[in-house]
Hints:
By secondary structure, the chain is mostly helical. The protein has 8 helices and 2 strands, in the order H-E-E-H-H-H-H-H-H-H. Strand 1 and strand 2 (33-35) form a beta hairpin.
Amino acid sequence: xxxxxxxxxxxxxxxxxxxxxxxxxxxxxxxxxxxxxxxxxxxxxxxxxxxxxxxxxxxxxxxxxxxxxxxxxxxxxxxxxxxxxxxxxxxxxxxxxxxxxxxxxxxxxxxxxxxxxxxxxxxxxxxxxxxxxxxxxxxxxxxxxxxxxxxxxxxxxxxxxxxxxxxxxxxxxxxxxxxxxxxxxxxxxxxxxxxxxxxxxxxx
Length: 204
């Protein structure tokens, strides 16, 4: 029995459950509280390297918060205590949300997720997946109808259809790329006044 426990610890099979003191960005799967699809679906404001150093996992075997897992957040994300459970320190949590929301599993508490979806959307917002949020076919519709599901609340409906436009803003001024930019990189290139073409228009 002791050897089984030792092996479980060595291979990370003994998981720390999410503290019941802070169930932000979680859902109950019928057995345990696990992180929701919007818990870690954003980028850290600070670098990932900084966040890993600032918010050290409770044990070397702990995984970072991710959709569907139940690893506890690093303590510094939500408390000044030294053991689980510890009372929430709201100043510490506010700092974590502002700087390292992905590392701490707090993406759903950022302004990008704090708005209302349309009352009568064209798609069922509850059924929207992360892949749909990244898809050029769906992104414009979701930015307009289901912004809170994809973290598009700060975009006011204007979005880059292609993920990664912001990685090379020189594309905005490249000769011969005007049509591509107007269709796919409206936010990065300040083309929000340009209407987007339906993804399926022109197809037979």
